[in-house]
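In the lab's daily routine, each protein ends up as an entry in a very long ledger. A line of letters takes care of the sequence, but it says nothing directly about the fold. The fold becomes a row of whole numbers, each drawn from a learned catalogue of backbone shapes. The protein below has been through that process, and both of its lines are reproduced in full:
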Amino acid sequence: MPRGRYSLHDPHDHTPLAEEHFHCAPGPSGWRYVSQLTTPSGDHIGSVDLALDELGRPIRLELHAAGWQVRGAALDGVTWVRTDPTGTDATEGNVRAHAFTGTSPAFLIATTRLLRLTPSSSATRVRLVAFTDPVLAPRTVDQSWALLKREAHGTDNGPLTVDEYQVTALDTGEQHLVHIAGDVVLAAPGIELEDLDSPPSVFP
């Protein structure tokens, strides 16, 4: 069960935004990721709890940020309920999309589990509902994912397989690279892996 810490920053000007303290693990039904978010000074600002089934579909999502809460799951596409900080105003949403995304590295892992790309496969289009900080506002985004290469790197714990993905935002054409080993994001725009207590999990 990998445990560690990501630092999140603005991908454009590198302003520190948050620290994400996480643990994750594959299980009999799929994969689960749980994290707590703090400001760079240490104040608690949110949390992520994401569970996937064995096909990579989100069977449960719970996000907290700035008093806002989102609960969601794959149901007729994806369905969610977003609650305001007072707890009195809840808005339900549903979009014909494949999964969710957001600022947490968990969503990058989740998308790769859903797509199951190989280096020989062509780029695959995916529609996601993104929850944007700080109020978890939903926005539908279309992306294209391609697995450019898969390389084994020697480590003290044996070979570590690293996948390099190219992600394209289909509305703007903007492209970026994401490096993933197992269920840990090694590097992506706005994301740095700072600490890792144990090696990434290896998916079957």
